[in-house]
Write a structure and sequence with these properties.
Blueprint lengths: L1 H4 L2 H8 L9 H22 L9 H4 L7 H4 L3 H18 L6 H28 L13 H15 L16 H21 L3 H26 L14 H12 L2 H19 L6 H20 L2 H4 L6 H28 L3 H4 L8 H5 L2 H17 L9 H37 L11
Helix pairs in contact: 2-19, 3-6, 3-15, 3-18, 3-19, 6-9, 6-12, 6-15, 7-8, 7-9, 7-19, 9-12, 10-12, 10-15, 12-15, 13-15, 18-19
Keywords: Membrane, Transmembrane, Transmembrane helix
């Protein structure tokens, strides 16, 4: 039995399977595309200390074609929204008792913790020994991991400063777990007090938006993390990260929008056809505002602080709304949804299971590719795209290995020992 639990061939077959247990297939396509965009954009940031033409990234700020990679952090809120949406849709039908909540908590922890713990321990004790060279410099990264490993393993690192986390992507792991802890009681209570739960969710959504607007307006913070021609001091960015970027009360709109959208999928009420016809135009306008709304600011134009505060407060919820709306239109198979059928390709299914691991390990992989060189790299758009593609491929390969060699054997052994007493199903 143990041999079957740890069988590489058996686990690989399951991990690479394109079979799907649900009908919300477009979510998986959006997840894979979104994480690929995020990894690509991160490569343009991680490369800054390792290039000889040091002004390369800042010179490209003037290019509007480059701007979607410069201003990209709202994609993370899109991931949070559709992860919440999919989780809500999958568990709504089976969440009947508080015992079900406990089982789902146990399953999610078993899915997440083994791989996450391995990555944190690997970064703490082994990563700095992987290579050497004149630009192999990771002192701050390794020191952060050694000093804050327990905060990461408890998924509370985002309640502390950015210097109290291991990998930069660790805050997203914490957010996903924290929101999952909230989601199940909300879904359970909504079966009995539907209107009250919706009222609390909508009120919390607006409260978070107002909070972000107030903080950016009154503390004169930047609207998000991006490169600008007028360089912003690192201390100001650190304040933004510690005050808004990693905090659940500031990033909760994406979670709440995904939660609220889940009720549209199970509702028997039909939506007005005129609204569905207007949806593509509305989503296009919202998308253009989110993607390019900070382009004038990034190239040094003087922008009123109130506009920056409005953008900061709205761009993440708007993008979460756009992404969830695309999923809904695909589900309803109407107008723009028909054009997005490629999002439902089966090839996305195995990759979508590992998106958060890919997000996490893409940082050390890209840093390894840059810093193991013996001289600084001369950066061009094409060389960076090649490195980004390589990072995406290696990150997905690494995520599959971690799933097959660590996560699945531990899950299988524990479920076998418990004789399936706590097993329900593996989400996603």
């Amino acid at each position: 039995v143990i041999a079957q639990c740890i069988s590489i061939s058996r686990n690989a077959t399951v991990a690479l399977s394109t079979k799907r247990s649900h009908k919300y297939h477009s979510i998986q396509g959006l997840q894979v595309i979104t994480i690929s965009i995020i990894v690509t954009a991160n490569c343009f940031i991680y490369i800054l200390p390792y290039i000889e033409n040091v002004l390369f990234s800042y010179e490209n700020v003037y290019s509007w074609q480059f701007h979607p990679l410069n201003n990209f952090t709202y994609h993370i809120d899109g991931l949070i929204a559709i992860d919440t949406l999919l989780t809500s849709l999958l568990v709504q039908r089976i969440l009947e008792t508080t015992d079900d909540i406990k089982k789902l908590y146990f399953n999610r922890l078993l899915q997440t913790l083994p791989v996450f713990a391995f990555i944190i321990l690997f970064m703490t004790f082994l990563y700095e020994r992987l290579s050497s060279g004149p630009i192999w410099m990771h002192d701050d990264l390794i020191a952060r991991c050694k000093n804050s490993w327990w905060k990461n393993l408890l998924f509370i690192n985002n309640f502390f400063s950015s210097h109290q986390t291991c990998l930069d992507g660790g805050y997203l792991y914490s957010l996903i777990i924290q929101f999952f802890l909230l989601l199940l009681p909300m879904l359970y209570i909504s079966k009995r007090y539907y209107t009250a739960v919706l009222a609390v969710a909508v009120s919390s959504l607006f409260a978070s938006i107002i909070y972000t607007f107030h903080e950016v307006l009154n503390t004169k913070l930047p609207p998000t993390l991006l490169l600008t021609t007028d360089m912003i001091p690192p201390k100001i960015y650190e304040t933004y990260i510690d005050l808004l970027y990693t905090k659940p009360w500031a990033r909760v709109p994406g979670f709440l929008i995904g939660f609220l959208f889940s009720f549209l999928f199970v509702s028997q009420k039909s939506i007005n056809n005129h609204l569905l016809l207007l949806a593509p135009i509305t989503l296009f306008i919202f998308g253009i505002f989110v993607i390019f709304g900070l382009y004038p600011y990034s190239i040094g134009n003087s922008i009123p602080q109130i506009y920056l505060a409005v953008y900061s407060a709205l761009h993440r919820p708007l993008w979460a709304f756009v992404i969830c709306s695309l999923v809904y239109l695909c589900y309803r198979n109407c107008n723009i949804g028909k054009l997005l059928h490629f999002l439902e390709w089966r090839i996305f299914s195995p990759f979508a299971k590992n998106i958060f691991v890919v997000f996490l390990i893409s940082e050390p992989i890209s840093l390894y590719l840059f810093s193991s060189l013996h001289r600084p790299l001369h950066a061009t758009i094409w060389s960076l795209l090649n490195i980004a593609i390589g990072t995406i491929i290696l990150s997905n390969f690494g995520a599959f290995l971690l799933d097959i060699l660590i996560a699945m054997p531990i899950q299988n052994i524990i479920f076998e020992l418990l004789k399936d007493e706590k097993r329900m199903f593996v989400l996603h």
